[in-house]
Amino acid sequence: KQEIFLKDYQPPHFWVDEISLCFNLGEKGARVTAETKFRRNSKTDNALVLDGGPYMALESITVDGTPLDERAYTVSATALTVHSVPDQFLLKVVTKLDPVNNTRLEGLYHSSGNFCTQCEAQGFRHITYYPDRPDVLAKYTVRIEAEQSKFPVLLSNGNRVAEGSMSGGYHYAVWEDPYPKPSYLFALVAGDFACRNDHFVTASGKHVELNIYVAPDDLNKSDYAMASLKRSMKWDEEVFGLEYDLDIYNIVAVSDFNMGAMENKGLNVFNTKYVLASPETATDADFSHVEGVIGHEYFHNWTGNRVTCRDWFQLSLKEGLTVFRDQEFTSDMASRSLKRLDDVRILRLLQFTEDSGPLAHPVRPEKYVEINNFYTATVYNKGAEVIRMMHTLMGAETFRKGMDLYIGRHDGHAVTCEDFVVAMEDASGLDLKQFRLWYSQAGTPHLKVNITCSHGTAKLTIDQSCKPTPGQPDKKPYHMPLLVGWLDSAGNPICPNIGAGGKWLKESCLLELKSPREVFEFMDVPEGAVISLHRQFSAPVKLDHNLSDKELAFLMAYDSDAYARWEAAQQLASRQFLSEVNGKPLIDGAFEKAFHFALRDEETDPAFVAELLTLPSEIDLGQKMQTLDPAGIHQVREKLIKKLALENKEYLIKRYTKLNTGVYSLDQTSVAKRRLKNILLAYISVCPEGATYVETQFKAADNMTDRMAALQLLVHSDYENRQELLNGFYETWHSNALVIDKWFSVQALSKRSDTVEMVLKLVEHPSFSFKNPNRVRSLVSAFSMLNQAAFHISGGAGYRFLAEMIVKVDAYNPQTAAKLVAPLGRWQRLNAVAMRQMQESLKWILNKPNISDDVRELCLKSIE
Ligand code: HT7
Ligand code: ZN
User: What is the pLDDT of residues 657-706, one digit of tens each?
Assistant: First the structure.
């Protein structure tokens, strides 16, 4: 497959004004009749070239009612070419599809007895021949015909305009979407579902019918999703002035899905994982993900659907912006500071790792082979950080003006990231010329901050740099906001004078960085004051500084900025680890003292205390080492956990016991307490009496958060009845797929030394399936992406396991298989033996016959 380049973008040769589709659905096959009205846009030659996939059969084709002679067109595996067409015409094409055997889960497929579609990015071409590109917007009318008893629910985009019975036990429904849309937003669902129905009245008084369709047994797990949808609708009106535009909003949950959810116009299709939640089956984190993803898809209605992308290089235009919007939504619904910590953690775990390896690419890539490989943490999460930096630079009010301008200018059009930045510039008057480098340069910038203080003047010298990434050896300096603050010697916020180049915004000062070196001076800084850097994680960078352990411990105790306070704790702990990994124990035990203090803090939000007590993950620590030593990190981290636990045992047990009371509730205070309680239990679990506490919580738990927390600790342990309890959990929950996913994951995340063997056995388990993406991710991704020590176990068994899984999954589902490849490309900082083993695993995959283009593209890049 050939590379496609952003610089080669050309407008389409034909526009489509309207398309009318008729789906006749049967388990033996589906017949699709597409009648498309084309209008010529540019006269290059007379031919019409339409995208089409290799899995459908062309049954008939007419132009303006005249059947085409076989010599008048050519069909290949990827296109239909009609050699000569008039400037305007109606093309009628009938295709035959095989949804039951579609395990790729794109186009039209069958999942748990129901039909559904997935068209982003290029799935529509597997349904009919069409200009399957986001800049061709058309009005859709869709008729669905299916057996009434098996498929009572027939849905598509827009509003239902007709329905009725047909002969042979069939029925039909006709849907019309008044808003022109690209083909990637088309959707159809036919099946047997239960429906949770509700409504929402918009700010302008419009009544919107809301429906969430789930499997009949799951109806009792859909109320949180519905409440989240209503909160999303209200929030978008209040914060962005954006109202819903159709009379009906449908969500359908399916269990076989390549990603989290899909924002099809008026008919979102969701992975069950992001719809179904009840206290018995879902953890607090699951509830929060449901709310976030429901919000994300809803917010796409404006940022993605009404204003869409000109081409797929602009993917971050809708994804980065919509992630930013869903992050803001969650921040407003729950705790802004905790949400920021979660987002920073994810960014560092997924995006920083991506940016430092062979798969690094800009937020707006310049070329791709397989677009599905570009639904990445860089496009989504770094894209959201880029939007957030504009928000920080101009402030919330001006950002809102920029959004209004962007939507007002581009509603109903397919546009570019450049159009967004121009709207922001026009609204704010800021010059974002240099800022645009965030879209075109890959890699994580590195800031080195040196602080010196003399006679009340603090001088900040900030050097920025960015390492080369594939194809980009030299980087220009970025324009970014750096928020900093000051604390006096008692820990109170102060605002010393800043000369030119800085601006105080309440308790934080906004510094704008543009040059490779910037120097700022704060005047009249009192004796003993401490600077707090990188507040709110104001730019997606790595930052080093010359603050002492004592200053970090002080920030960890007093900083009013949650991110900076947490980061101080993380850095203090990291320093202790890294000196221990290198064989030099820290003499003054600054982190241990700070831990002792934080554990006994009963004033601060318990959820935040939990964050302060959570040590940096093995992956975080690995990112800080020149040569990655997964076993060494694991050992030292476990040793420190044990030391902290034993030193604080009585207090840990006392505070745990106090928190382990009260009835279950999902309110924020209860969630916060559970979070702290379960962190404390993790420390207690490594004490001699730990088994009793863990087992008691596991058996007594009345909710999945507490049960899973205990189960994870059981799995890590070598407690006597470990296997028995793990088996018992399976027996109890075997019929709930989402809970069994968790059962696979906890085992994949085990800290035990026999994890690889366990994971190899789990692939043989009757409940494991290579066809179900959730199940594959729950075992294979959890193991290879999150369990650093087990994945890198000496001998290379972890790498060989992952390679085998990639090949097996690829045979059914290339998109899901390709998402597993990245860990095999992270060999650069490993020792020579591990490096070779990883590269051999990549070669082994590449030598397999019939490997997909999706997997090949990533393996080739990873091996370079
Ligand atoms: N816009 C969607 C991205 C997507 C997708 C979703 C489901 C299956 C396959 C997919 N390919 C791309 C999801 C989102 O970002 O909201
Ligand atoms: Zn999205």
Answer: 999 998 999 999 999 999 999 999 999 999 999 999 999 999 999 999 99
Question: Which atom of ligand 1 is found nearest the CA of 372?
Answer: 11
- Give me the catalytic one of 106, 120, 291, 297: 297
Round to whole Å and give the CA distance between 751 and 36. 57
**Which atom of ligand 1 is closest in space to residue 296's alpha carbon?**
16
**Mean of per-residue pLDDT scores for the chain:** 97
2 Cα to the center of ligand 2, angstroms? 26
Q: Please give the Cα distance from 290 to 807 (Å, whole number).
A: 31
Contact 821, 852 (CB under 8 A): no
Who contacts 402 (Cβ-Cβ below 8 Å, separation ≥6)?
390, 394, 423, 424, 426, 427, 428
**Contact between residue 467 and residue 356 where contact means Cβ atoms under 8 Å apart:** yes
What ipTM score was computed for the predicted complex, to two decimals?
0.98
Neighbours of 293 (CB within 10 A): 22
- Ligand nearest to the backbone CA of 318: 2
Nearest CA to ligand 1 atom 13: 262
Cα dihedral across residues 419, 425, 374, 328: positive or negative: negative
pLDDT, tens digit, for every residue of 128-179? 999 999 999 999 999 999 999 999 999 999 999 999 999 999 999 999 999 9
Which residues are paired to 615 by β-bridges? none
Confidence of residue 587 (pLDDT cuts 50, 70, 90): low
The pTM for the full model equals: 0.98
Q: Which two tokens stand for residue 681?
A: 């239990």
Nearest residue CA, atom 4 of ligand 1?
120
| Amino acid 586: pLDDT | 65
Instruction: Report DSSP state, residue 539.
Output: S
Best CA proximity match to 622, nearest among 800, 356, 806, 437: 356
- The number of residues in the chain equals 864
Instruction: Name residues whose C-beta falls within 8 Å of residue 143's C-beta, 6 or more positions apart in sequence.
Output: 20, 21, 22, 23, 172, 173, 174, 175
Among residues 733, 800, 727, which one has the least CA distance to residue 760? 800
Whether residue 51 contacts residue 14, with contact meaning beta carbons closer than 8 Å, is answered with: no
Residue keyed to tokens 């066809």? 771
Cβ neighbours for 250, distance < 8 A, ≥ 6 positions apart: 155, 211, 212, 213, 266, 267, 268
**Pocket, ligand 1, Cβ cutoff 6 A:** 118, 120-121, 258-259, 261-263, 296-297, 300, 319, 375
Which domains are delineated in the chain?
4-288 (2.60.40.1730), 308-440 (1.10.390.10), 446-546 (2.60.40.1840), 734-864 (1.25.50.10)
Q: What residue has token string 């590379």?
A: 3
Contact 491, 478 (CB under 8 A): no
Question: Measuring from atom 7 of ligand 1, which residue has the nearest CA?
Answer: 259
Q: In terms of Cα–Cα distance, which of 359, 109, 56 is closest to 256?
A: 109
- Exposure pattern of 591-620 as b/e (b: 16+ CB <10 Å)? bbebbeebbeeeeebbbbbbbbbbbbbbbb
Question: Dmax of the chain from CA atoms?
Answer: 92
> Can 297 be counted among the known catalytic residues?
yes
> Angle, nearest 10°, between helix axes 549-558 and 590-599?
10
Q: Which of 375, 381, 772 to mutate to test the pocket of ligand 1 (most atoms within 8 A of CB)?
A: 375
Residues with CB under 5 A from ligand 2 (ion): 319, 322
